[in-house]
Amino acid sequence: MRATGLLLRERRARADRRFGIRLFGAVAVAALSAVPFGLLLVLVEGRWRPLRVMDAGAARRLHETALAHPGWTSTLRFLSDWVWDPATLRCVVALLTAWLLWRRAWRLAAWSGVTAVAGGLTGLLVKTVVERARPSLADPVAQAPGFSFPSGHAMTATTSFAILMLVLLPLVSRGWPRALCWGVSVLSVVGVGFTRVALGVHWFSDVVGGWLLGAAVVASTAWAFEAWRADSGRRRSSMAEGLEPELSEAVPER
User: Fold this and answer.
1) Tell me, what's the pLDDT at 237?
2) pTM (2 decimals)?
3) With 0-12 CB in 10 A as exposed, 13-18 as middle and 19+ as buried, what is 201?
4) Confidence tier at 7 by pLDDT (50, 70, 90)
5) Cis bond leading into 150, ω under 30°?
């Protein structure tokens, strides 16, 4: 029995070391493994005419609506600048990570923090490399600094709500409560993208790029976490269960 316990602890120690390597390795290759994002990036950089026509048409129509309905525009600005602002969402993820540390869910806390930071740094790097200009509209209803592709708001919303859902799902009852959480998350991610285009500070393809790149980062780090679970002898979890189903237990990591 004692020998079995020692073997189990040794196996988990090796798994912990491999987990760190895989986690940061997954972050490094996230952009390269994001095939849909890569294809979109090629089209943006190549100034593909159908994409430019679609972007310009969406920007023009939504800008006309924003100018015609000031109250609607004010609501969109409040949602974009406060409720769904990247700083707000990052604070929420930071609080979640702190709570996970308090619960002694060390590896889940590491995954949450690394995924959030990796998403922000990856988005900033791509913006700097691509250097796409933001829309230039007559009578703008909003302003935003920096480059346009990909949308930082859309990417942060994607990574943040994915982190919240994948971490907290084990604590949410099955059935309509989980469906409600998924619905709010999806609506928020889509809503963020809509507000950025409607306010004239991003092209539609910027928003799609943010969604795709954010999803790629989350998928890569989640894969690393699942690999750690397999190495440490834990069963594989499904997206419907969250990354760590044991979070609902008194001691999540034994």
Assistant:
1) 67
2) 0.85
3) buried
4) low
5) yes
